[in-house]
Amino acid sequence: MTGTPRPRTVLLTGASGVVGRSILREPTALRLLAATHSAPAPEADGRRIRCDLTADRLGLEKEEYTALAGEVDAVIHSAGLTEWGLPAERYRPINIEGTRRVIEFARHAGATVHFMSTAFVAALAETAPVALSEGNMCRNYISSKWEAERLLRDSGIPHTVFRPTNLVGDSATGWTSKGQIVQLMSDWICRGRAPFLPAHAGIRMDFVPQDLLSKAVLRAIEQDVSEGEFWVTYGAEAMDMDASLRVLAKHAAYLGRDLTIPPVVDPDTLTAEQLAGLRPMVRNYVAVLRDVSEVTRCSGGVLPSSMPELRTRFGVPLVDDATAYLRSLEYASAHLS
Ligand SMILES: NC(=O)c1ccc[n+]([C@@H]2O[C@H](COP(=O)([O-])OP(=O)(O)OC[C@H]3O[C@@H](n4cnc5c(N)ncnc54)[C@H](OP(=O)(O)O)[C@@H]3O)[C@@H](O)[C@H]2O)c1
User: Fold this and answer.
1) Would you place residue 276 in the very low, low, confident or very high pLDDT band (cuts 50, 70, 90)?
2) Does some domain include residue 4?
3) Are residues 238 and 321 in contact, defined by beta-carbon separation less than 8 angstroms?
4) Which of 52, 108, 301, 329 could form a disulfide with 69 if both were Cys (CB 3.0 to 4.6 A apart)?
5) Ligand 1 pocket check: which of 19, 233, 303 to mutate, most ligand atoms within 8 Å of Cβ?
6) What is the CATH number of the domain that holds 50?
7) Spatial separation of the C-alpha atoms in residues 139 and 173, rounded to whole Å
8) Quick check: helix, strand or coil at residue 32?
9) Taking a C-beta distance cutoff of 8 angstroms, is the pair 278, 265 a contact?
């Protein structure tokens, strides 16, 4: 006797985060169980699970853990500490040991793990043309994601790795649950506060709308994909510096501001005195731009990309990145600032 097959059940860690909430908004036949930590995930309509990556059994009681493992077919592991500039020991319990616990759970459940890593790991690859400086503010974060990827590789469990670049709002509406570093920095530049923009020659401004990542991972699970590494980036299609500055000028004009685009300077020519002369907040923002630029340079200037494959294999829509970037800035100006 054949009954109606039950929908496959997917545990989503980090359901309250930017990526988690974007995934929860996407239509899918999968049954998503939203695992949240301290914040709620308003888009979750099914059962919610309180999960702590830093605790044994993900912070669940033994019975709940076992029952959950019995019903989960796949895990989207999106929870993590995403802030940059923290000491390495802050990332370890969540990004590395937390991933170890997710692997343990998946082994118990016989589930495939779909891991949200970062495209910035390209800067640590053996193929990196230049070594990332020790003091780069993204380094400890990237290293923790790199280490988590290694744990997955060594675990032998079926898994995929998605490596998104910096995400912006939804491709159609600009919606995001929370402002991201791209919107924050762009807003600062559009207010005319940046004295100059540190960027290495030739680097691409690679920003991807968050729903493209959500669609890709959900379609991968629907298609029962259990291996592969996917760079969720535009790569060589991404805006160059001039294209991104045109978006900023357009957005400033939309806000009624007469923006003089600040000069672009090579970060390697910046002197300590030049930086010391800046007000602390300006210095911090300049340092973010400089360090992100360095990450991209160490990734070869252009991030690796699986976008063509994501389109053909998972139906990820063809979206112009400059249009999506502008839409995202408009949404952020109207709703987040
Ligand atoms: N957003 C991006 O631009 C971007 C780009 C590249 C890669 N990624 C990767 O994509 C993933 C999701 O990013 P995101 O932007 O959604 O991050 P986010 O908005 O900072 O959300 C992080 C999520 O992790 C959860 N979390 C933190 N500590 C936890 C713990 N101890 N136990 C359980 N859950 C915990 C948070 O829950 P609470 O808030 O409730 O504590 C939150 O739901 C991350 O792994 C990140 O590395 C993101």
Assistant:
1) confident
2) no
3) yes
4) 108
5) 19
6) 3.40.50.720
7) 32
8) strand
9) no
